[in-house]
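ok new one. same drill as before - structure tokens go in, u give me an amino acid for every spot. 149 of them this time. try not to just spam alanines like last time pls lmao
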């Protein structure tokens, strides 16, 4: 039987997901939300700054919540030149994304914000491929750009 927290992860708020996974308790969540209000940072940034959740775990959870898989691009290996030539470096840097694999007519792209459907549509028009976005960290994108462009 699938636990309730895993069945409805897309419908839950991030704080509730973390509580259901016993990564936070009510008082910690309250403290984090207060810090978020004061700092005007995103919840995920506050969680990682305060040391409550590892960035990779957080991105993986956010990816599940949004319906986009998490990928650590640096572990994926060298990105073929045929893929990096599809998207100019200036566009990749501006939108914090990098293509990392092609499967048939689909281009897999790691990005910091896979919810940016306008960018995905623009990349699809630019490349002629369907785009499947994955979530990753800004650090991962910067490393991939440095090592592959």
């Amino acid at each position: 039987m699938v636990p309730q927290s895993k069945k409805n992860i897309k419908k839950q708020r991030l704080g509730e997901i973390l509580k259901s996974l016993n990564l936070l308790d009510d008082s910690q969540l309250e403290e984090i939300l207060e810090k978020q209000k004061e700092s005007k940072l995103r919840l995920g940034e506050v969680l990682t700054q305060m040391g409550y959740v590892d960035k990779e775990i957080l991105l993986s959870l956010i990816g599940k919540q949004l319906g986009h898989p998490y990928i650590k691009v640096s572990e994926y290996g060298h990105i073929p030149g045929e893929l990096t030539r599809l998207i100019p470096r200036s566009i990749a840097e501006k939108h914090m994304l990098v293509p990392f694999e092609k499967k048939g007519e689909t281009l897999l792209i790691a990005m910091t914000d896979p919810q940016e459907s306008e960018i995905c549509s623009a990349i699809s028009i630019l490349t002629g491929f369907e785009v499947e976005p994955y979530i990753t960290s800004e650090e991962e994108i910067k490393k991939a750009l440095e090592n592959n462009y």
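The domain at 73-148 is CATH 3.30.300.160 (GMP Synthetase; Chain A, domain 3). and btw Confidence is low (pLDDT under 50) at residues 1-6.
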